[in-house]
Amino acid sequence: MRRRDFIKTAGLLAGVSAPAVWPSRLLAADKPVSIKFDSYIAETAGPSRLDDWFLKQLETRSNGAVKVRRYWAQSLNKVGEHLSAVRDGTSEMSLISPGYYQAQLPVTRGLEWYYRMNRADALHLVCRDVYEQFQPLRDEWEKRYRAKVMYWTNWYYAPLVTREPIKSVEDIRGKRIRGYGVANDVIQRLGGTAVPMAAPEVYTALERGVLDGVYGFDFITAVGYKLHEIAPYFTDIGDGPHGPSATIINMRTWEAFPEPVKALCNDIVGEIYGGKYTEIFDAAARQYVKTALAEGAKFSSLSDEEKRKAKALVQPAEVQAWLDNVAKPARIDGARMQSLIDAAIAKYDPQGTLKRFDELAAQA
C-alpha cells in the first residue's frame, strides 16, 4: 500500500486536508497498526454487529494500514475480565457492559436505569453527551481505567420473556425471573423474585421450571438462545431501552495511533451516531422477529395504564437509590449528572425511531 494513498483517503473521510508528509513515527505498510479486539459475546449478538461493522470499516478504509484481530465469545478473556484487560493493555479494544462492573464503575452506573425514555437509538446519544459534559464520567474511564470510550452503544430492548402470558403488573408478582445488573432491581420493584444466573444456564433452568421467566436478555440474544422454545411470551413492559454499553480502547493505544487513523476512527464513529446504529439494529431486529414468529413466539405489550403502574413502582426510586447508595458515598455530584441526563433525554428521545420487537411483530 502506498502511504500517500492512505493519508489522502483518511483525510477526505475526516473532512480535513491530508498532511503532505507522514512523520517518521508513523507506520509503513509492512508494519500496519495492529489491534486486538476482545468481546465476551458472540459475533451474532446485537452490539457485536455494530462493533464488527466499525472494525471492518476501519480496516477497509485504511487500505489495510489497520489490522484487527478479533476474539469473540470469551475466546481471549472471560466475562468480567475485559475492563481490567483493556486497562492493562492485554486487550486493546473491547465491549464493556457496565452491569458486570457495578463496583468498578460507580459513575457509569448513573447511566443505568429503566422507565425514563423510549427509544434505544436515543440512549447511545444520551450517553455520548453526558460523557462529553460530565468530567467524573470521563475520568472514571480515562484516568481510572486508562481507556477512551470510542463510542456508546446498548442492547436494544429487553422483553420480559415468560412461560405464561403477562397481561398486568400483578401477573409478575411472585414470578422467579432471571435478571442482569440494574434489571434485577426492576424485577424486585415489580413484585417478582430476581434470580442471579449465568446466561448459558438460563435455557435449562426454564426447561426444568426453576425459572418462570427471563429479564435482562435483549431481544436478539433471547431469540439467539432459543428461549422462546420454552418461554414463548415476549412482553414489552414499557421499560424503554436496555443495557447502555461502551466500546472502549486502551488510552496508550489510542494516543499511539497515527493522526490519520484517529481521524478515520472519529469519522466512522460519527456515522454510528449519525444513523448507522439504528440501521444495523433495525435490520437485526426485523430478522429475529421473523424467526421468532415462525418458531411460535407470542408478542404483546402491557396496556398504557399497566405501563404507568410499572413506571411508578420503578421511578424515581431506582435513580434515587443510585444517588443515595452509590453517588453520595463516592462523592459524585449525582444531581448534576442526572440533570444532564434529563436534558439529553429531552433532546434526543423525541427523535428516536428504532422500533421495539412488539412493534415490528405487529407489522409482520
Automatic annotation (TrEMBL):
InterPro entries: DctP_fam, TRAP_DctP_sf. Gene3D superfamilies: Bacterial extracellular solute-binding protein, family 7. It holds the Pfam family DctP. GO terms for biological process: transmembrane transport. It comes from the Bacteria. Coiled coil: none annotated. Keywords: Signal. This is ABC transporter substrate-binding protein. It comes from Achromobacter pulmonis.
